[in-house]
Amino acid sequence: MILWSQAKCLVRFKDCVLKDNLKSTSFIFKNPITDLEIYQSNTQDLPCKIGVIGHRKTEFLNALAMKYIAVPPLSRTYPLMAELKEYDQIQYLNFKESSGLDKVYLSARYESYAYKGKLEMSDDVNSVKNYIVGSNNYNSNQSSVSEAEVNRVIDLFNLSHLRDKWVNSLSNGQLRRARIAKSVLHKPKLLIIDDPFLGLDPVQTQLVSNSLNDVVDEFNMAIVLGLRFQDKVPEWIGHLTEVDESGVLFNGPREEVALKVSKNIKETEIPQDRKLNLLKISNSDLSDNDTPHVEFNNASVIYKDVPVLANFNWQIPRGTSWRILGENGTGKTTILSLITADHPQSWRSVLSVEGVLRKTGSGVTFFDVNNKIGISSPELHSLVPSTKTMNEIIKNGLVKDIGNSNFQFSGERYELPNNKIEALFQKPFVVDVLEQHGNTPFHSLSITLQKVTLFLRALIKDPELIILDEAFSCMDNVDLLKACHGVLRDEFPDSTILSIGHIEWELPDYDYVIKLVGDDNRSYQLFKAVAKD
């Protein structure tokens, strides 16, 4: 067992209060952080693999990453890092921004396959490998890493088969794995990740968890993960810290803190999955006398001789709610991009909307399509101008004929379209959110409030089709999550809703499920969701 006096302390808080800036008269937490330390070590006897839970976990991670001002100045110190005097010894990944990635329009992911060959992509400065090692940033200060280390990390995070792809062409889950791998290859002394499993399917969640444990041991780094109460804490986490508005409530060995947390936590903060039976059906079971809202008829989408969709048939009756289920990379977002016309092959007679085949020369434009669609997705999230306020982003959804990914136009002069939407924006939870945060820049909002912002933007036009791609992932305010679900259930019963999410209770109510399988033999199945007795 390593003695604390012999161990290398990375971070130390001692009677520390935190301020957002020097002029601020308020503190981040009500109480000082009296005594907290993080060590560099490969043993769980010391706090070196830490999970942070609680409603103010992000603020605590910000404090670890030097985002706030410590009062007095020496109440927060970094002993080993100060001794080494090396650059970039802390890596903080929070998925609220997209540093190192190109800002591109949504169709670019799919258009890249049309003109970039394998050789060109492997040499591209923005390939997955070059993004991870920092070669796509000419001002990169990343410390040198060996080719063996690069290959090891790429393999650990299941990115070997993607290393030569353009990084912006990755699926949401693949891109998150690449961003974690990039942070790891900096070989920091302290790696901080908020919501590390955001957008990952269960298989990839376990893979990333195991890989993080391996690399922090190999590179001798400490790691701190920001987790929700509802998240499963990785088995290798040795210490837990719970924080709320007052500051650090509990801090210590995992078993001790977990017991205290379980006694304090409200039942409402641990949502339960719905109890559903999935009954297998066919498209013929969905047919009635009405024309489907959306219909795929023998649709095929192929990238470089690799089928993503093959002979794909799916009828979506108007007013139905669907869950699109599948592991990362199975084509979920591709299907949605075909519907929204962001995918170039959307115009190749692969689908019909309200009985009208979508094809070039049909008279229907990209803007016509998107005027009737409201969407919230990780792709949109990454395109939001960080300085625009919550109010500006939401009202931008009222502007017609600009598509769903254009945030540059102001919707201030537009009126709400009808009484239903006026009633929506008079709901207490919406009024409360807008009064408190309406003028806050997007980058300053929590992940939960960023999600609410894009959700309200999707609804403000009263769309006929609502697409929710990971729209509620990692929301840590369960009451707010339930309020959003209630809006869809009560105010939009006639809208067609398509949802993607890997955690069942994060999804709104749904009537049907389409399950995609992404192995060598791509396939899909349709189910009707029926509540268990």
Automatic annotation (TrEMBL):
InterPro entries: AAA+_ATPase (IPR003593), ABC_transporter-like_ATP-bd (IPR003439), Molybdenum_import_ModC (IPR050334), P-loop_NTPase (IPR027417). SMART domains: AAA (SM00382). Residues 11-270 form the ABC transporter domain. Keywords: ATP-binding, Hydrolase, Nucleotide-binding. The keyword Hydrolase applies. PROSITE patterns: ABC_TRANSPORTER_2 (PS50893). GO terms for molecular function: ATP binding; ATP hydrolysis activity. Pfam families: ABC_tran. The keyword Electron transport does not apply. This is p-loop containing nucleoside triphosphate hydrolase protein.
